[in-house]
Design a protein that fits this description.
The protein has helices spanning about 1-30, 35-45, 55-80, 80-85, 85-95, 100-115, 120-130, 140-155, 170-190, 200-225, 230-250, 250-265, 265-270, 275-280, 290-305, 310-315, 320-335, 340-355, 360-375, 385-400, 405-410, 415-420, 425-440, 445-455, 460, 475-490, 495-510, 520-535, 550-565, 570-590, 590-610, 615-630, 635-650, 655-665, 680-705, 710-725, 735-750, 755-775, 780-785. By secondary structure, the chain is mainly alpha-helical. Helix 20 runs parallel beside helix 23 (about 425-440) and helix 29 runs antiparallel to helix 30 (about 570-590). It is elongated, with a radius of gyration of 45 Å. It starts with a helix and ends with a helix. About 40% of the residues are buried.
Amino acid sequence: MLNGTEDEEKWLAEGIAGIQHYAFFMHRALDSNNLREALKYSAQMLSELRTSKLPPHKYYELYMRAFDELKRLELFFKDESKHGVSVVDLYELVQHAGNILPRLYLLCTVGSIYIKSKEAPAKEVLKDLVEMCRGVQHPIRGLFLRSYLAQISRDKLPDIGSEYEGDADTVIDAVEFVLQNFNEMNKLWVRMQHQGPGGVKEKREKERSELQDLVGKNLHVLSQIEGVDLEMYKETVLPRVLEQVVNCKDDLAQYYLMDCIIQVFPDEYHLQTLETLLSACPQLQPTVDVKTVLSQLMDRLSNYAASSADVLPEFLQVEAFSKLSNAIGKVIEAQVDMPAVGAITLYVSLLTFTLRVHPDRLDYVDLVLGACVKKLSNIPKLEDRRAMKQVVALLSAPLEKYNDIVTALTLSNYPRVMDHLDIGTNKVMAMVIIQSIMKNYSCISTADKVEVLFELIKGLIKDIDDADVDELDEEDFKEEQNSVARLIHTLYNDEPEEMLKIICIVRKHTMAGGPKRLPFTVSSLVFSALRLVRQLQGLEGDIVRENVPVTPKKIFQLLTQMIDSLSAVPSPELALRLYLQCAEAANGCDLEHVAYEYFTQAFVLYEEEIADSKAQVTAIHLIIGTLQRMNVFGVENRDTLTHKATGYSARLLKKVDQCRAVYACSHLFWVDDQDGIKDGERVLLCLKRALRIANAAQQMANVARGSGGPVTLFVEILNKYLYFFEKGNGQITSSAIEGLIELINTETHCDSTSPDSISDAFLASTLRYIQFQKQKGCVAGEKFESIKL
């Protein structure tokens, strides 16, 4: 390969040297106005282009050297005063050159001047030149020669408004010249594939790709001819070009030229000749990438439709959707070996086109999805990742267009397309749907649509085809389930009956999710149901009447079943929190027995399921806090629950935790509401009990470590004393507070107590508060005045 490259470089250098050598003598002849010598050396210079050794990109370098010299020669030919020969005679004279290739380059150069002189009609000269160029049939040499002809003639075509315009039908002559040159160039280009030994096909294809722009330039010239209006394009240009494209039976040429047609001619021409253009697609070689050709056509038409609303009636008039849809169907049917990704890519482009041109026609959108389902149904299992990616693009397009999942939910074929995705891609698509809902604040407010939605995202809410949930990445799994949980919160309907149906549908789907998913989804579902309970509280009469379809009691029954499902996880801490939330909601509905049952379940969980000491501390404080806010219980039920809470508080593992839980229980006997409980004696009992536990904790620390622990617990209890003292609890006296302060001071200055800056600061702050209250005056000041510091 290296030797071949070195040879090519050597041959190119020799060719350039030859051109420079003869160009030098040509320049001398031009400077001395010697026409004969100029023709002689220019012909010898152009003979260097007769080489067959160079590949296209090297030959191009040689050609450009000669091209630059020909421009200088053309200036000499143009000035008749320098050589004294008329352009007509000059046109005859250059035809006597010995070799055909130099002769034709010179003929084209003089022909350009001949047309400019207007001594003969442009169409006659152009016709003569295009015919004469047939004399060179070597593909590379012929292509560059005809490219030179196209280059020098493009501004001399007999077009409308051109200075070379003739009497009649001038545009036809211009079109005919360009088409003839295009046809001949395409034949030369296609013929290249048959040159050389069979083993270098890949190299030949690469070389042909390097030359494709020479052929395509003709189509660009055609598109620039002013006289080529829609009628001429429809009747002459497009049929002739397509005839050449189809008949050449070469996949590289067909793909490139179809792409050229789509890119160079105006969008409105494509729209009005859609049927003609599309009819060529099934006739192309099976190896041609028709999907890309059609996709580019649809993309151009989509952009054209998006450019202005005024053009949309044209699309309806020509029935663009049905024509494109039929063409895609025929192509897929004709190319039985087309891979799945190719077919789906076509449907993605068609859907994009449909959403831009006919956004209001959901039946068209559903038809495209249905056609894709039909194609996917013929594939046993879709495993191609690129095809999967295209299916996701297909499903994402309606979401992006309408910014509303509700619209997508009305498409009957949408879930059927999703069924063909594998588990991983199904989840990706489900996440796309949820993100679309969140981003656009979409409201799914009917049970039917919720049912369809949860069928779409079933890959996230339950295992499909026995997929092992343990194989999932933990972070990804949490993100997926949190997304589902957020989705549940967005489902809402003002009508309680419809909202209950939504909750039941979501419950049906999520309960099948398995133990790993339930902690994420049950919480959201419970809070969604509690929102409905509070909604019912605001509706007069609905709470007490039993004959209405939706009552809090019915919802609480449902809630119990939901929370009970967490026992399979197990997740006792979460279940306990949810029971307490439900108890608080039952309190708002004045349902004492329901609230009591929820507290009972919470205590059962605490006793039987929660073994971790830290979890027990958190749980007991949650129970105390919730119970303190309850006002629905009668004396007996409240006493039972309060007794349980204080009992469990005193049995916590660590003395410090016991102390804090017991003094928290004091709030259960003093509720600062209008009708709240105010049992000062039992408050004092709790605080004294907490003080005893704190003393015991201090002594245990002294025994275990040889020094007592910090006095923080005593300061915390002091703050509780002050709270209840300020609230008017007669059992909390100033002497009791003084005694506690004295005890703290004694402990602080005790040799066995560990110094602790935090405890000291806490105590100092508490004492400052007492001083502040004294200085305030009024009733509070008088009360605190009795405390002697």
